[in-house]
Amino acid sequence: MRTDETGLYVDTEEELTLLQDVGEFHFAPTVSAKLHMVADLTITLLRPEPPGQVITQGGDIDNRLKTLLDALKVPKQPDDLPPEATPSKDESPFFCLVEDDNLITSLEALH
Q1: What is the average pLDDT value for the chain, to the nearest integer?
Q2: DSSP letter assigned to residue 54
Q3: Does the structure show a pLDDT above 90 at 14?
């Protein structure tokens, strides 16, 4: 292995790239393990319901947060994408927040 001009390790047979192909999409995560990055998120949950019912109405908060975090990461396989999904010309690359949701090291949910 060698390092590039920024000091990142580059495989001698393959250049460093953040792009990941899944199905017809070319995903580009802004937070990547290749760059030794992690994410610390603060999320404000806005719901059209009275205060105190964020957990009792519309599903539990754990499932809501899991759905949100899944939507912020690069899909692992084409089956994770909606059926018949194809990128439009302005969605290449398709930017995602994180390469994998295990790079989210801290999460604060506000209401």
Answers
A1: 84
A2: T
A3: no
Chain center to CA of 53? 28
Q: Which amino acid is at 68?
A: L
CB atoms within 10 A of CB 33: 13
| Parent domain of 82 | 2-110
Distance CA 41, CA 20 (A): 23
Total domains in the chain come to 1
Q: What is the DSSP letter of 110?
A: E
59/42 Cα distance (integer angstroms)? 20
Sort 16 into a burial class: Cβ within 10 Å, 0-12 / 13-18 / 19+. middle
Which pTM does this prediction carry? 0.73
SS (H, E, C) 68-98: HHHHCECCCCHHHCCCCCCCCCCCCCEEEEE
